[in-house]
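for ur thesis appendix - Jg26618 protein. copy paste whatever u need, i formatted it the way the template wanted (i think)
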Amino acid sequence: MSNLMPVVTIQWDWHEILRLPNDEVWISAKYLNTNSVHDKSNLCLVLKHMESGLKIAFVAATKAHNVHKKAVLSVALAENALAVSSCEEDKLLVWDTRTNEALLDLDGHGGPIYKCRFFPSGIVVISSGADGSCRIWSAESGINPVTLKGHTMSVPDVCIVEKGRNVISVSKDGFAKLWDIGESQCLDNIIEGHGPINCCAIAVTTDEVEIENEREVETGNKALVVGCENGFIICSHVGKRQDIFRKEMTSACNACTIVDQTIVMGCEDGKLVLLNLQDGTVIKEIHESASPVFCMATLSNHLFAIGRQDGNCVVISIKDEFAAVRVQLTGSDCDGIRDIAFNGKWILAACRDSYIRKYDFNQISVHFK
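the 3d part is after this line
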């Protein structure tokens, strides 16, 4: 048991309660498949779980944005403080994180919008959803100049290649498609025939090939990682159109991200699997919770954040020296975290309770030094 880490949680409104003199909040520690151990404390900012050696820091949101009326599905954050987010009301909004003001209502998708992301410029947005399309929007005017159609089922995730001349979308129809934004057309299928795809991430690989098609830009050294509903993790070389490796997990793969040269995959059974990008070797597995992983985001060259169905949102390091350190982003009262965004300074966590909570990265990174 000493090699396993428990999930330590704290009362969701602890930061408000502790402002009152002599008041207390609850905390609990739970190993996977065991009963929770509960206690109360009036000093709950940083704790150490003595049995496992786990150090857990609780960080409260600096602000809870309420731009949506229903559960938030996705959120993205640009360096200029603009955000874009979608909700179960089928709304896709561009808004200002400084003022909470909704600037644009991007209307065009025929149903829920499952993913929205900013291009590196910070003034262009891509969205994908249940209607099977991907749409490109101006975050300044709201114009939708490009719509990418070709999938026959919903599109849960997208990747932007470098500056965005090309993008990759993954769908429940089992296809990962490479798109030419300028001509609004599909260049090729990168992955197909492995069943419904839930998530994707793109990384730079040392294996580089020359690309002859001038409409395909900077894909010669890119690897695409996807997670499938049937539990398969597939890594494919985008330029070569060849699989690098395939691995099968014990449950559906819901979310993934790339941290340095490490793939982090979050699964339906709550497990996190860390794999080597080059050959798929499993580096380690972290199984501290049975709650499904819903979303992930890379924060630095060794930190990543995950959001779970039970509202747990935690920052973890891939470095062994911080294996016993967790930073928990609090505020959700057991409502699922649907998406996480990061712009180098601020983290946004999109929640089922309709709030998007904002966290200061400096308050988080200090615990990993």
